[in-house]
Amino acid sequence: MTEFILKTNELTKTYGRFNALHNVSITLKPGKIYGLIGQNGSGKSTLMRVISGLSFPTSGDLELFGKSSPRAMQIERKRLGTMIESPSLVLNMNTKENMRAHRIMRGIPNEEIEDELIELVGLGSTGKKKVKNFSLGMKQRLGIAISLINNPELLILDEPINGLDPIGVMEVRNLILKLCREKHITILISSHNLPELFQVATDYIIIHDGEVKQTLTLEQLENKCQRHILIECEEPDKVLGILETELATTNYKVLPNKTVKLYDYVDRKKEVARTLFDNEIMYTNFSVEGDTLENYFLSVIGG
Ligand SMILES: Nc1ncnc2c1ncn2[C@@H]1O[C@H](COP(=O)(O)OP(=O)(O)OP(=O)(O)O)[C@@H](O)[C@H]1O
């Protein structure tokens, strides 16, 4: 298996003097769901367009499935599926007709893939119903089915849950998880809604004003957001001893910089401080940390 599906190195895209992307360096590994999170106008679609070959970078490099020459990339891009901005659907056609049109346009001979994908995205019962009468969620799922027609290894979905009602969101979310878990497709999905992405993504790329501000795994994000008491001290081992014997908790983490994160007693911090004091533990910092997803996102983008 390729170690990296995609690597970008200092990708920049300018429109006139405006930097839509600035020195974007990211890597995507197989089997993951990457959440590209940023406000409106932060550069999400631009990045997706450049990766998909719909737009050229002004400078910087792109490597797809280990290949970087323009000729090789043209071939490797056949391993991508994309739905950028709204799906391209013919409203006067039904599900099957839309699938067929796209299959023929892409030159894919396997007719069976049409029904397979229609079932996969849960549109098997739509029959003769025309797309113009579909809900937004159904249209998004049909768009995703179309983007899967070439059996892609990397799927790029630009705001697929934007504007959907809660049921539509849930259906698209479940579909994305299914594609990753059962079909082993790596997914890059953009949204301006971190709590929504939080339900599906395994990794996060935070973009703001065309710059990647942070990349982090789900575990790192959870750690950042989980409320805890932060204790910085000279002798963390002694602190742990007190936490276990006096406060009967092992729900803590010790960081290499002599810092203890305690996930219990967050709303009873005076009790912890008193216990440490009574046991003659000196600390240099004692504070409650951690945030909501939205606040964390805002702190990263400087809001
Ligand atoms: N063809 C273009 N010409 C000039 N400016 C552009 C062009 N395409 C995008 N931009 C600008 O680049 C910036 C990034 O746009 P982009 O569409 O990538 O943002 P986005 O994060 O996808 O936003 P949204 O969530 O609203 O879709 C925006 O300020 C946009 O106006």
UniProtKB/TrEMBL annotation:
Signal peptide feature range: none
GO molecular function, one term: ATP binding
Alphabetical list of Pfam families matching this protein: ABC_tran
Family of the protein in this entry: Belongs to the ABC transporter superfamily.
Keywords in alphabetical order: ATP-binding, Nucleotide-binding, Transport
PANTHER family per UniProt: ABC TRANSPORTER, ATP-BINDING PROTEIN
Lineage, broadest ranks: Bacteria, Bacillati, Bacillota, Bacilli, Bacillales
Protein name: ATP-binding cassette domain-containing protein
Species this chain originates from: Pontibacillus salicampi
Domain ABC transporter: 6-234
